[in-house]
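Design request, tokens follow.
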């Protein structure tokens, strides 16, 4: 039984090595190589539920900064209490100086610093938790924010928050 297992293992290793050499096992000819891709890695957005954010707000926890990245007129029409307005445009351009300046101004108003402050958690609020949140996350990473729990996005955005019932409506101004 051990010999059979050893033979199977040896065959599997041989096949694995042959498949990694770039040689066609049938003809011995080199396999064509594919050009290397230079696509950027997918932007990771970490979400926070409305329930979690409500719990944080009602417990008066410190250490959370809310950044509302919707258009200024949408923020003025209604926003979550304590959120700082930081309008971000949805553009494919990764270099968006106006949106970056808006984020830096909101960060400075919230913390006195235009970049990340250790020990604080930043929550991005947008329309639905999609394209605007992704853009804001990309820009904030450019300002030195890392991946992980210090930069979150409200799942479903302001749309979900405002449609979640009276206890959520109490936090809208």
């Amino acid at each position: 039984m051990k010999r059979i297992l050893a033979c199977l293992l040896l065959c599997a290793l041989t096949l694995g090595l042959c498949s990694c050499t770039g040689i066609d096992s049938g003809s011995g000819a080199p396999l064509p190589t594919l050009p290397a891709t230079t696509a950027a890695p997918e932007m990771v957005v970490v979400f926070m539920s409305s329930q979690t954010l409500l719990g944080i707000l009602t417990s008066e926890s410190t250490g959370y900064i809310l950044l509302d990245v919707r258009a200024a007129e949408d923020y003025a029409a209604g926003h979550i209490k304590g959120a700082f307005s930081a309008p971000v445009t949805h553009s494919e351009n990764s270099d968006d100086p106006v949106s970056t300046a808006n984020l830096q101004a909101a960060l400075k108003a919230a913390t006195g610093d235009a970049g990340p402050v250790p020990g604080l958690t930043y929550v991005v609020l947008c329309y639905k938790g999609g394209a605007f949140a992704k853009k804001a996350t990309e820009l904030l990473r450019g300002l030195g924010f890392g991946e992980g729990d210090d930069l979150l996005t409200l799942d479903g955005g302001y749309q979900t928050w405002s449609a979640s019932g009276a206890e959520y409506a109490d936090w809208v101004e």
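Comment from the thread starter after seeing the answer: thanks! Residues 47-169 form a domain with the Oxidized Rhodanese; domain 1 fold (CATH 3.40.250.10).
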